[in-house]
Design brief:
Length: 365
């Protein structure tokens, strides 16, 4: 498993560098083809090619399907390996994207090995879909993964697990990004302040208003994290803008935040507001993963593996499949820590365990 993980990691695959990502996709697809399964590349113009692998059911023509979902893109640009090499130390494997989520792909590959080598009957077609742009919002893969999910009885997402105990993610916050632009009117701050409409003041008032929507106990957060505005200190600011991070744990709360955003009205006479964006991934509510999690927990305990679950503050493609009403279980991937940072790593001895849990789920779903 480590050898394969090393090969996948050495093929750097940033979401925004197509040529590099395509090379990684080839290496991943080749590894699956060695297992005698059909692995096709779904060609993309500007993003890396997506990989679709199909394992036909054994001895049946069942059209039922299970989807194993993940992404092979990482947040690290080409060349990161030089300062962050793939290395193994103290039971951990380090390197760009090992935790998020190349080890998850490796575990899935070995889950398939487990099923094939033990001649376990596979009742449903299994589709493994590895996409190239999850880290930048899944624009080129969204339709594809949604279509695949609609044909599936269940979706297993190989995103990293939560915390050192490897909790599965049975709920995820919905995530969005809004941009609020204020149009004011410029004027000399000394000679004719009354002729101006201060876009920075208006934005400050709007941000104070949005701040009151935060309700951390319900999992609702609204954060203006980037602001810009104005030109010179003696010119009444004509324009300002804020980028706002939006999160909610419940679909109803997401809708409420969206309604409030849409209903924002200018507070200063003459100011105009323009709103762009909003939620792009709806919350994955716990109800959508409950049955699959119970099954995973039971199967794992039969192998003397303890599995627990938790809530993730970030979104993944699991949010998209859950939003379609398809039972989705996320966080089945690697156990480790420090995703998107120079210390990113996985716990090596957990890899076979996690592969075994996935194999059991695929054979029993
Ligand atoms: Zn990820």
């Amino acid at each position: 498993m480590l050898e394969v993980l090393r090969n996948f990691t050495l093929a750097e695959s940033p979401s925004t560098e197509k040529a590099a990502a395509d090379r990684c996709a080839e290496i991943i697809a080749a590894e699956w083809r060695k297992r005698g399964v059909e692995a096709s590349l779904i060609l993309q113009k500007s993003r890396g090619n997506h990989i679709r692998i199909v394992r036909k059911p054994s001895g049946t023509n069942s059209k039922r399907q299970l989807l194993v979902l993940g992404h092979y893109d990482t947040v690290y640009s080409t060349g990161t390996l030089q300062k962050m090499p793939f290395r193994v130390s103290g039971g951990k494997a380090y390197g760009p994207g090992v935790f998020d989520m190349k080890a998850g792909i490796v575990q899935s590959l070995f889950a398939l090995d487990i099923l094939q080598e033990t001649n376990t009957p596979i009742h449903k077609q299994i589709v493994f879909l590895w996409t190239s742009d999850e880290e930048i919002g899944s624009e080129s893969s969204r339709k594809l993964l949604e279509a695949e999910a609609r044909r599936s009885d269940a979706v297993f997402v190989l995103e990293p697990s939560l915390g050192p105990k490897g909790l599965l993610k049975t709920a995820r916050k919905g995530v969005g990004e809004a941009e609020l632009i204020v149009h004011g009117k410029a004027s000399h701050a000394g000679l004719a302040p009354e002729d101006g409409v201060n876009a920075v003041h208006e934005l400050a008032l709007q941000i104070a208003r949005m701040r009151a929507w935060n309700d951390p106990r319900r999992g609702v957060t609204v954060n203006a994290d980037v602001i810009q505005g104005g030109t010179r200190v003696n010119v009444i600011a004509e324009r300002s803008r804020a980028l706002i991070d939006l999160r909610a744990l419940r679909i109803a709360d997401m809708r409420a935040v969206e309604r409030k955003l849409q209903a924002l009205k200018p507070l200063l006479p003459g100011a105009k507001l323009e709103l762009k964006g909003g939620f792009n991934r709806a919350p994955m509510e716990r109800t959508i993963s409950a049955v699959l999690f119970a099954r995973a927990k039971k199967l794992a305990s039969g192998m003397e593996i303890q599995l627990d679950d938790g809530t993730a503050g970030g979104g993944s493609d699991g949010n998209l499949t859950a939003a379609l009403g398809i039972p989705t279980l996320d966080g089945l991937g690697a156990v480790g820590d420090a995703a998107h940072s120079v210390h990113e790593h996985i716990f090596i001895k957990k890899m076979p365990e996690r592969a075994a849990v996935l194999a059991a789920l695929l054979a029993n779903s």
